[in-house]
Amino acid sequence: MSKGIAPSHATRRPDWAALCIAASLVIIAGIIFWDVSKLPELGGYSKIGPASVPHAVAWCLIGLAIWTAIAAFRHDFPKREKQDLGPVFWIVAGLVLQMLLLNVMGFSIATGILFAFTARGFGKREIWYALPIGIMLSFVVWTIFSKLLKLSLPAGPLERLFF
């Protein structure tokens, strides 16, 4: 029997959350590689074309995935606190509502709802107070992007009322 303390069963196991992150990085890199394979090779004499930077990003993600997997087996990540799911629910619900309402209600209202739900997720209890602020800020953003920069963002009843 050795004189040291035997490692516990829990410390021999890899950090499964870190391994999931590493696997996600590999999947994202794979999607980038797949998407880049559809781009034409227009590098010419310099061998640099539209696929060069995405290839570099994908290889960096592969490197980060390997580094993360090694750290998972070496237990190099700090101990994480328990996740509070309430705020996550509010933010994800706001994102889902924004995606569903974007073409129906327009950018300002849909993004104002996202703003209010995110504020609720960060601890602001009064959604009735955050909602009009979010709609006003989103309307300013819509006006800048749509009217000044001439970019296309979905218009709804509020945007049509003024423009």
Which short descriptors sum up this protein?
163 residues, mainly alpha, 69% helix, flat
Structural class label: mainly alpha
Query: pLDDT under 50 segments (min length 5)?
Result: 1-9
Count of folded domains: 2
Helix content: 55-70%
Residue-averaged pLDDT, rounded?
A: 87
Q: Distance between the terminal alpha carbons, to the nearest Å? A: 82 Å
Protein model, in words:
With 163 residues, the chain is mainly alpha-helical. Helices cover 69% and strands 0% of the residues. α2 packs antiparallel against α3 and α5 packs across α6. The N terminus is likely disordered.
What is the topology?
Blueprint: H1 9-12, H2 16-36, H3 52-74, H4 85-105, H5 107-121, H6 127-148, H7 157-162
Helix pairs in contact: 2-3, 4-5, 5-6
Short structural description:
This protein has helices at 9-12, 16-36, 52-74, 85-105, 107-121, 127-148, 157-162. The protein has 163 residues and is an all-alpha fold.
